[in-house]
Amino acid sequence: MSQVLDAMFERKVKPQEHVIDQGDDGDNFYVVERGLYDIVVAKDNQSRCVGRYDNHGSFGELALMYNTPRAATIVATTEGALWGLDRVTFRRIILKNNAKKRKTYELFIESVPLLKSLEASERMKIVDVIGEKVYQDGERIISQGDKADCFYIVESGEVKILIKSKTMTSKEANQEVEIARCHRGQYFGELALVTNKPRAASAYAVGEVKCLVMDVQAFERLLGPCMDIMKRNITHYEEQLVAMFGSSMDLLDPGN
Ligand code: CMP
Ligand code: CMP
How far apart are CA 105 and CA 255, in angstroms? Predict the structure, then answer.
């Protein structure tokens, strides 16, 4: 950590400044301190904004990790500040850590049903981007109505999903009802990322829980091939809600 901190440098940016241009060689990795940044990907002669960093997150790791040209253009849309880490330091420190991560998570990631259809190299890229978070008994992992920025896979322990139904009246509406439990190898927190809506339910740790966490940018970049499975499962959520509340309106209009 101290070697990374020593090597980092600050870079101030102005609106419309290109921090990274797609196709260039990779020089630095960046962590956002503040500002908004669009992620623009050009494909088949068309440029599309595929996401944005909002005062949070990091980018520019792909070209450095896989020795490939920059995969997207990153444009500041406001004034901002970034912390950069040069390619040599990034590779020396982060890649060593990635090798450790691959050893630790490879077998588990192979066993996750959702990821079964991916190629081995695609699963490896997932291992490279995941982080691990630990939650204590009763701790809230996701709050219904919040803006969503990541996706979770349960590594150990149990997670319960609770929902406040907007279709119920008055005092019943404020009560959370348990609708599901997720165990090792199962995922949650995908719905808001797929539908671009606030979190549809809350998630709490039951006992100590370890989750693998992936940010929304990596989710969109790496889990495209699993999208059909996730979308099919949303139909299952709707059935669950209809069975419990007589309506699945909550999925279309979540909130507190
Ligand atoms: P790199 O290819 O080095 O430079 C552009 C960066 O944009 C890339 O690393 C990722 O960190 C980031 N990025 C975010 N979303 C995407 C995406 N959908 N496709 C490619 N790069 C992305
Ligand atoms: P998201 O809306 O991002 O955050 C809450 C998560 O709870 C949701 O994604 C799903 O992963 C999960 N969930 C499990 N069962 C349901 C259900 N019946 N309705 C909505 N969300 C559910």
Answer: 34
Q: Is-contact 150 213, C-beta < 8 A?
A: yes
CA of 48 to the centre of ligand 1 (A): 13
75 Cβ below 6 A of ligand 2: no
| pLDDT number for residue 256 | 45
CA atoms within 13 A on the CB side of 118: 23
Residue owning the nearest CA to atom 12 of ligand 1: 59
The structure tokens listed for 195 are: 């539908």
For residues 171 and 10, the model is more confident at 10
Nearest-CA neighbor of 154 among 185, 133, 132?
Answer: 185
Asked if residue 61 belongs to a known ligand binding site, the reply is: yes
Among 54, 60, 13, CA closest to 37: 54
Q: What is the pLDDT of residue 154?
A: 98
Tell me, using a 6 A CB cutoff, whether residue 150 lines ligand 2.
no
Average pLDDT, stretch 136-165?
Answer: 96
Q: CA-CA-CA-CA torsion for 108, 112, 117, 118, nearest 10 degrees?
A: -40
Mean pLDDT calculated for residue range 41-46: 95
Looking at all shown ligands, the one closest to residue 239's CA atom is 2
**The token pair that represents 67 in the structure block:** 């020795």
- Centre of ligand 1 from the C-alpha of residue 154, in Å: 26
Q: What is the pLDDT of residues 217-234, one digit of tens each?
A: 999 999 999 999 999 999
